[in-house]
Amino acid sequence: WDRFLLNRPKVEWNPRYYLEYRLFYPYSSGIPGQWMSHQIDTVHWFSGYDHPRSVVANGGIYVWKDGRMNADTFTAVFDYGPDNDPTKGFQVLYSSRMHNEAGGVKEYYFSNGGMINLDTNKISPEGGLKAEYAKAMNMQPNLLAETSLRSDIKMETGANTGGDPMTSLHMRNWLECVRSRKQPNASVKAGYNHSVANIMATKALHTGKRVTFDAQKQEIITS
């Protein structure tokens, strides 16, 4: 039990803390660490940014009154972009609910030219700048070409991975790098970066404040 608690506050043995630790803070952040980490890691991979500029979040235990400490409903808004230019960037909206699974896990990336849908593995011009609207603003239309990503491999957007090809390839790459000593596709830096985003979101949820990150000092800052 002491090994489980590590540097957490000493408390009496509680089998629920041990077996259902994802429901209880400070042994788990709940939704951010268990689920959001997978999607936010993809954001970093696509964008090249290491961590958000800021995060705000809200949520609560609205449905499952079973003694848990972590929220069953959670929404966070992340701001990404260069630290020295607030006029450039984008937002990421993440939302999760544990009372209704309608729609499943979806992951969409929107741009001025269209969208990437990781549920259907397609790039489309949907929502992009069409000619009629571009002309009114003296701009050129900006529409992505319809493109289907590899259809023989279903992209897994949820966290319940296992036997799917993408997870197998991920593990194969890691094992090959253990042997070759090369850098894996998902490096330890990637793990650190999405941990920062998770901790920022958790801090924002618990404090109700806007959260930023000082990369030099490795400190989470609330404002």
TrEMBL record:
Transmembrane segments: none annotated. The lineage of its organism: Bacteria, Pseudomonadati, Bacteroidota, Cytophagia, Cytophagales. InterPro entries: Gfo/Idh/MocA_oxidrdct_glycsds (IPR050463). It comes from Xanthocytophaga flava. This is Gfo/Idh/MocA family oxidoreductase. SUPFAM superfamilies: Glyceraldehyde-3-phosphate dehydrogenase-like, C-terminal domain (SSF55347).
